[in-house]
Amino acid sequence: MKILTAAEMQRIDRLTNEKFGVPSLTLMEDAGRGVVEFLEQRFAPLSAHRILVLCGRGNNGGDGLVVARLLRDRGLKPRVVLLAEPSKVKGDAAANLERLTDSGPPEVAADLAAWRNLKPQLEDTTLLIDALLGTGLAKPLEGFLLEAVRDVNTSFPHARVVAVDLPTGVSADSGELPGETVHAHASVTFTAPKLAHVFPPACERAGEWLVKPIGTPREAMEQDPALTLNLTCPEDLAWLTHPRYASAHKGNFGHVLILAGSVGKTGAAAMAARAALRAGAGLVTIATAKSALAIIAGLGVEFMTEPLPETDAGTISLRAFDHGRLDKLMEGKSVLAIGPGIGTVLETAELVRTVVNRYDLPLVLDADGLNAFAHCISAFRSAGGYEHPAVLTPHPGEMSRLTGEPVGDIQKRRVESARDFATRHKAHLVLKGFRTLSAAPDGQVWVNPTGNPGMATGGTGDVLTGLVAGLLAQHPRRTAIEVVAAAVYLHGLAGDLAARKFGQASMIAGDVIEAVPEAFAALATRQAS
After folding, report:
1. Which of 93, 440, 457, 525 would disulfide-bridge 481, Cβ 3.0–4.6 Å?
2. Structure confidence by residue, pLDDT tens digits, 189-209
3. Domain 6-225 in CATH: superfamily?
4. How far apart are CA 123 and CA 126, in angstroms?
5. Confidence (pTM)
């Protein structure tokens, strides 16, 4: 599903009107109908509510006027207040004002004094529809509208607030808040979510939100190369739950090699391996420092292990290349994952850089595998000409070490940072955090809606490494960005299921692994319904 800015939404609406012949008045009618459908489903029975529809003078107010008319058509008696002079309502909104007037004109409160005079009569409202401004905000609220928004937030103690498109005061184009806004319990948007629905802190003001179609053809967005921001949805992942064919064997589902672990950091390698197996990989081998092998092997019976020469610090040594040992180990492998628990010893970091540049396998690079390229990202796949994709999965701190950009700057421009890195280095980048991003070399970015703060615990990144590697091994015909975005979604969904069972404070990384089968099942159920 595409995520749009206000300008992109306007362009899509114009294209829908001019190229596909859907009148703008029809779009407004369908928008109002979508809101009413949501209200009927979410707040049934509507007859039990005292409904207030607040309308501005623009198109968002026009949507609200449609909502009011359709509610009246259902025999309800909403209070409808226009916070503008009727003469200032233009275009499609004016047409809907006239239609509403046929069943009774709205009440008008065109200035603060009129609003404050009317407001005491409305304070028993239990369902308030915010149709004041929508996506048209270009600057912080001020004057009468600001005071009205403050009143919406403080003077209707019994009301649930539903925003039409976006809460008034929220800018569609950013997660940042330009000023004071309506605090909505829910928002109904149209055609596609806007950035403010997805990114914090604005998404918190939007509350629960959903997208209602209003007649825009799918191709109007899918064929637009300028639209590069996407939200991963269950319907994008139907392929992930396709049944396996009856004659399948383990060789059909790939062999993941995980170069990971060191003395004192054995759990990371085992968690990555277990996650790859839970993702469905046919075979998984951990290659690790010889002294760490016994402990790692004891953490799982389903994966294989391979001892490698080690440094004095108990990390993998460059001597692993002696006699073609690593060359032989790479033979027959589908995916190579490097990094969990591998350590930061200089010799091991040099080994990581050499392996990354020497072998052309689908690659997942995480944790200390990423740190091996800290402040020397130009050494990453420096030879060029690699056939298979590379996936890097940094958290903001690791991203800072890779790019030299301060963490604060990365967090302020997460989408741009992820996209810039992916396009510049011809890699797939997973920038972890709230709303984890998956960026592709062609500039497409996928935003993940799953996950929760309980996943902020040691080892969950290692689990993600295993899931990405396990899915890449099984789905070589899928584009890498499809697989990566799917792995990130599955990871977050498993985390949500684990949090539901154990609570966010108590869940650990192993709980996420154990919830992966349930996450697959939940996806299959959603797609079947």
Report:
1. 440
2. 999 999 999 999 999 999 999
3. YjeF N-terminal domain (3.40.50.10260)
4. 9
5. 0.94
